[in-house]
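TASK: fixed-backbone design
INPUT:
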């Protein structure tokens, strides 16, 4: 159900980097592929210094349905990913938790989603203590379709 192309519409996070660079947000797309019926292969396409990059990650299935684990280097850098709400034809809201820090992301099947979906996203963000002042929306134009072989970052560690 989650397979296919998604557009990053919004993100709520207390990440200081995001706050400092919010004026530089780039249009971002994600392609999700369900592997072995459980884990997800994620390819994120975005611009960095006006070049298109692809960032590849692998979300491993966790104990409960809709729960995934994104492993980084060492035990401290694991990120729990939880599907908060989804309508596979139009949107998905994902929670990312690393330690005590939580972020909420809204993805849409198109770069523009309805006000109803935006309201759901903002309610879910507020429910975990993330207010409008730490909610950011991404550009709806200037997407990357691909990246050349020299601009692929592989998250497999």
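OUTPUT:
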């Amino acid at each position: 159900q989650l397979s296919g192309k998604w557009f990053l519409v919004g993100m709520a996070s207390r990440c200081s980097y995001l706050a400092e660079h919010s004026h530089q947000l780039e249009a971002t797309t994600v392609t999700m592929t369900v592997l072995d019926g459980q884990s997800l292969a994620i390819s994120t396409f975005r611009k960095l210094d006006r070049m298109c990059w692809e960032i590849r990650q692998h979300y491993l299935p966790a104990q409960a349905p809709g729960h995934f684990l994104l492993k980084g280097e060492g035990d401290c850098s694991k990120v729990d990913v939880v599907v908060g709400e989804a309508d596979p034809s139009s949107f998905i809201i994902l929670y990312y938790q690393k330690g005590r820090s939580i972020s909420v992301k809204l993805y849409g099947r198109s770069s523009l989603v309805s006000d109803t979906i935006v309201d759901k996203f903002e309610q879910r963000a507020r429910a975990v203590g993330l207010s409008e002042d730490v909610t950011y929306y991404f550009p709806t134009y200037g997407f990357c379709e691909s990246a050349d072989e020299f601009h692929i970052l592989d998250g497999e560690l």
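COMMENT: DSSP finds two helices and ten strands in the chain.
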